[in-house]
C-alpha cells in the first residue's frame, strides 16, 4: 500500500545548494514527489509546525533556524514512505547518522540537520495539511 510522508529540506541545506542532490535520493529510492513548494516560513509558522516540541529547551532556537531562510516542503509517496524516508535521512544528530544518509552527508548539527521527515503516518496526516491542501496533491 502506497503511503505518504512530509519531507522538508531545511534552510541549511537550501543555502548549501543541495536541493537537487537530496531530491535525487528520494527518487532513487522509488519515492514519488506528489506535491512540492518552496517558502520562507515566518517564526510563528515555524513554531506552529513544531508545536509538539513547544516545551523542549531547543524550541525557540529551532523556530528561529527554520525561519532563517527558505525551505522546500514535499509530499513523498511510496511503499513504506515514512520508514523509507527516515532511513534515507539518518539519525537526527548527524554525528550519529549512518554513513551515506542525507544527514551524514549534508547536515552540520543536531539543529541544522538538513531535512525533516514525518515520524509516523499519524504525524504525516497532521504535517501534510500544514503545507498542502487536497487540491495540491497530484493524483
Ligand atoms: P526534526 O526531525 O525536524 O525534529 C525536531 C527538530 O528539532 C530536529 O529535527 C532538529 O532540527 C531540532 N533539534 C534541535 N536540537 C535537538 C535535540 N537536542 N534533539 C532533537 N531535535 C533537536
UniProtKB/TrEMBL annotation:
Q: In what residue span(s) does the Nucleoside diphosphate kinase-like domain sit?
A: 2-139
What GO cellular component is one of the record's annotations?
A: cytoplasm
The entry's active site is 116
Required co-factor(s) are: Mg(2+)
Which residues make up the binding site for ATP?
A: 10, 58, 86, 92, 103, 113
Tell where it localizes.
Cytoplasm
UniProt keyword DNA repair present: no
Under Enzyme Commission nomenclature, its number is 2.7.4.6
MF-aspect GO terms = ATP binding; metal ion binding; nucleoside diphosphate kinase activity
Query: Which CDD domains does this UniProt record tie to the protein?
Result: NDPk_I
A Gene Ontology biological process in which this protein takes part is:
GTP biosynthetic process
InterPro entries in the record, alphabetically? NDK-like_dom (IPR034907), NDK-like_dom_sf (IPR036850), Nucleoside_diP_kinase (IPR001564)
Catalysed reaction per UniProt? a ribonucleoside 5'-diphosphate + ATP = a ribonucleoside 5'-triphosphate + ADP; a 2'-deoxyribonucleoside 5'-diphosphate + ATP = a 2'-deoxyribonucleoside 5'-triphosphate + ADP
Q: Which Pfam families match?
A: NDK (PF00334)
| Listed HAMAP family | NDP_kinase (MF_00451)
Could you tell me which PANTHER family the record lists for this protein? Answer: NUCLEOSIDE DIPHOSPHATE KINASE, NUCLEOSIDE DIPHOSPHATE KINASE DDB_G0292928-RELATED
What the protein does comes down to: Major role in the synthesis of nucleoside triphosphates other than ATP. The ATP gamma phosphate is transferred to the NDP beta phosphate via a ping-pong mechanism, using a phosphorylated active-site intermediate.
**Known partners and oligomeric status:** Homotetramer.
Q: Which family does it belong to?
A: Belongs to the NDK family.
The protein's name: Nucleoside diphosphate kinase
Q: From what organism does this protein derive?
A: Candidatus Manganitrophus noduliformans
Amino acid at each position: 500500500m502506497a503511503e505518504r510522508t512530509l519531507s522538508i529540506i531545511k534552510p541549511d541545506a537550501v543555502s548549501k545548494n543541495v536541493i537537487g542532490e537530496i531530491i535525487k535520493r528520494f527518487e532513487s529510492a522509488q519515492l514519488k514527489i506528489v506535491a512540492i513548494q518552496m517558502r520562507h516560513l515566518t517564526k510563528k509558522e515555524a513554531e506552529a509546525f513544531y508545536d509538539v516540541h513547544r516545551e523542549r529547551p531547543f524550541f525557540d532556537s529551532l523556530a528561529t533556524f527554520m525561519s532563517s531562510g527558505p525551505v522546500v516542503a514535499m509530499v513523498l509517496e511510496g511503499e513504506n514512505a515514512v520508514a523509507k524516508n527516515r532511513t534515507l535521512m539518518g539519525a537526527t544528530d548527524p554525528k550519529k547518522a549512518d554513513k551515506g544518509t542525507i544527514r551524514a552527508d549534508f547536515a552540520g548539527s543536531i539543529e541544522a540537520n538538513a531535512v525533516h521527515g514525518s515520524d509516523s503516518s499519524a504525524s504525516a496526516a497532521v504535517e501534510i495539511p500544514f503545507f498542502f491542501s487536497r487540491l495540491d496533491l497530484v493524483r
